[in-house]
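Please decode residue identities from the backbone states below.
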């Protein structure tokens, strides 16, 4: 639940920034467009692999990085929420709600839970670290990290794999067609 609230807060900030800060908006528009151009030029199978690799590395860093007092997952989820809010607000205004939903929902139903689960595991590891730091933690962080990584491999990685395939092969058809 914490990850969802952080994501929503970031999303709200992103939408407000897109709406009320035109200079910031132009800066982010240019950066996002460059990122999209980089990925858009790839063949579908390479695109799926690039998306999967990108998302898996980031999700793994958020999970493991959570052991550093949970700071990385908070920053990551908030920043991603802001980026999503920014893009959604602008895209809905320029392309309409249906096009945006077709572009996001098919892969988002797999990717968003995977990312939120990875961040939640990172926050949990951060909680254990904080308790250890203040001497109230009885749980071995190494053991919890091992459990988090096992969960990551069994649950998060397959969700990210499905999301990458859907994004590369289905989303482009839905949005263009």
């Amino acid at each position: 639940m914490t990850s969802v609230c952080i994501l929503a807060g970031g999303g709200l900030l992103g939408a407000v920034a897109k709406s009320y800060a035109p200079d910031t908006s132009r800066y982010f528009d240019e950066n996002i467009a460059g990122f999209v151009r980089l990925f858009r030029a790839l063949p579908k199978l390479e695109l799926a692999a690039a998306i999967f690799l990108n998302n898996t590395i980031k999700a793994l860093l958020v999970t493991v990085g959570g052991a550093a007092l949970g700071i990385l997952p908070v920053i990551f989820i908030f920043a991603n929420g802001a980026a999503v809010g920014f893009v959604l607000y602008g895209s809905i205004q320029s392309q309409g709600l249906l096009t945006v939903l077709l572009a996001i929902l098919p892969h988002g139903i797999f990717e968003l839970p995977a990312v939120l689960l990875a961040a939640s595991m990172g926050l949990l590891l951060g909680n254990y670290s904080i308790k250890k730091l203040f001497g109230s933690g009885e749980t071995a962080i190494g053991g919890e990290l091992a459990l988090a990584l096992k969960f990551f491999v069994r649950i998060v990685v397959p969700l990210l794999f499905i999301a990458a395939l859907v994004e590369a092969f289905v989303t482009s058809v839905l949005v263009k067609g």
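Observation: The chain has six helices and no strands.
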